[in-house]
Amino acid sequence: MGIFRRGRRVDMRPFDAAAIESPRPTTLEHALEEGLLIADYAVRMAVRNRMMTELLTTDRAFDAEHYREVAAEAVLRLAEEADASEARIVREQAWAEVQDGRAEHTHDYRTADSLNLRRREALAKATARALRSRAADPDYLADIVEHSRQDAWRELSSVVEETVRVQSVGGDERGRQQRMDALRSDIEALRKSRTARKRRRPAHG
Fold this sequence. Notes:
The chain has 205 residues and is an all-alpha fold.
């Protein structure tokens, strides 16, 4: 028996590009759904950031109605962006319909791009319409505010926990002892203050 065996011959068929199925174009409904998911995330982040900024820099108490208005404004801004996209695509489509030949760069649309541009125009129009509907939906806005509140709370909680952790492990023993002494002093001062107020409180006969 030889050391090297002759390998089994593999039948290599010629490449046939026609046998590969072309990817089906994304439907308007699917593209709209994905776009609205991205919009939801953008609105939540905008509301969350507004909450955190106002919590840290103002004395404003949490007001759900106020943040529903913030959410509605964010949604309407996205709707306006969709309007602008639609208007731009309409101009590009008008130009593409009179241009023949091969494109010179990515945004050099030609006649062959007309169908794709019409699909993009329809998507932009549907997106703007859906966003305006959401901006007027109190249930949608309330849901956005609640999720944003939870996001903001998690973010602030993680910052506080990290600060406490760093302070608890950082510094020398003398520094930690000084902080403990200061805490005991504050507690004792609070106890004396409460005791004094009780003594000054008039007795009821």
